[in-house]
Write a structure and sequence with these properties.
about 375 residues; alpha+beta; Deoxyribonuclease I, Chain A; 9-stranded mixed sheet; 22 strands; about 20% helix
Length: about 375
């Protein structure tokens, strides 16, 4: 089974037809022998593992990136292969249900806007006409987060970059890390908010670095609370590489994300990946152990029991087909990464992508 799915509806839903930008599924009711068609859209997140261009940017520490560690004459070829591999994955996420690439894609570990433009203009993606929301972050390595969206499906009304201000507890020096990207707009007319995250790493050990991720979670919660002040029933999706599992303090306590939908109340958060990690699934290997650092969570109005119209959550998954998985070695069964000890492996990323399906009844 190449992906794990968490079913969120006590309904029988079947694939009935596909369209160029979104698909439809049919809900059959045994009670009245009637059926309804639902539009389905994919929202995905993918850590692109050091998607850096081939130029040396003296304003950041990009020389520490795998791309810059390679001989200058082979960088263009490696860069194009890396773009192709990323595009190949992105166009397939959710396509078995929608017949198309995701409507919304959050990404991290990208160097700048240029690599995003090269990615969305790749021959495998250019036909989807993706827009880009991106800001340069203060991260010392120069890595950023971004949101890609199909212009035909999503209209951006507002976006902003929210800075995470944290300091080293011993030296007092500021830790320069990634911003949190907040994009508000309309998905086929349905108002929605997306937050893209790449929380501080576990450098120095999980326990020692934990306060940095708790601080990132606090900023995330502050953003969500501010959106709820404007609209108590705001549909908010927060996603990213959190460098923490769903059961860690940052997610389970600071965000208070819930495993079961029935436990989610207004202005609370549901996290379908809590159940996945309890069942042994993973999106990466960290220090020889499987983790789910990549997660997509949502607020109460996106759940079926709270929905009064528009899109609501259907199911979640981890996209981990065989072609993206290591077949041998120490990390057999884990993501087939693209760089290893300064060498391009022609792999993909050291993370598997995650995704959710949103559905709404067709009128």
């Amino acid at each position: 089974m190449y992906k794990y799915l968490v079913y969120s509806l006590l309904l029988s839903l079947f694939l009935s037809s596909c369209a160029s930008n979104s698909g439809t599924i049919k809900k059959s009711s045994a009670k009245d022998d009637q059926s309804s068609d639902y539009v389905v859209q994919t929202v995905a997140f993918y850590n692109l593992e050091n998607l850096f261009d081939i130029e040396d940017d003296t304003s950041i520490n990009d020389e520490a990136s795998p791309m810059m560690e390679m001989a200058e004459d082979i960088r263009p070829e490696v860069y194009q292969k890396k773009l192709t591999n990323m595009a190949r994955v992105l166009r397939k996420i959710g396509a078995d249900q929608t017949g198309s690439a995701p409507a919304i894609i959050g990404v991290c570990e990208i160097e700048n806007r240029k690599v995003l433009e090269d990615l969305v203009n790749h021959e495998l993606l250019v036909g989807y006409d993706y827009g880009i929301e991106h800001y340069d972050s203060p991260d010392r390595r120069g890595i950023d987060v971004a949101l890609l969206y199909k212009k035909s499906e999503f209209r951006v009304n507002n976006s902003q970059s929210r800075r995470l201000m944290i300091r080293n507890r011993e030296s007092g020096d500021r830790i320069y890390t990634r911003d949190q990207l907040v994009v508000s707009g309309e998905l086929n007319g349905d108002e929605m908010h997306f937050i893209v995250n790449h929380w501080p790493s576990r450098r120095g050990g999980e326990q020692r670095s934990r306060p940095n991720r708790v601080a990132a979670a606090a900023l995330n919660k502050q953003i969500i609370d501010s959106l709820h002040i404007s609209n108590a029933m705001a549909k908010i999706i927060t996603m990213g590489d959190l460098n923490d599992d769903p059961t860690n303090e940052s997610v389970a306590v600071t965000l208070n994300a819930q495993r079961d939908q029935e436990d989610v109340q207004p202005q609370m958060i549901y996290n379908p990946y809590i159940q996945m990690i309890k069942e042994g699934y993973n999106t990466l290997a960290y220090r020889d152990a499987g983790n789910i650092f990549d997660q997509i969570m949502m607020t109460y109005p996106l759940l079926k029991q709270a929905n009064t119209g528009g899109y609501f959550y259907y199911k979640a998954g981890i996209y981990n087909p065989s072609f993206m998985t290591a077949k041998t070695g120490q990390y057999k069964g884990y993501p087939l990464r693209s760089f290893s000890y300064g060498t391009f492996t022609n792999g993909f990323s050291d993370h598997f992508p995650v995704y959710i399906y949103l559905i709404k009844e067709m009128k």
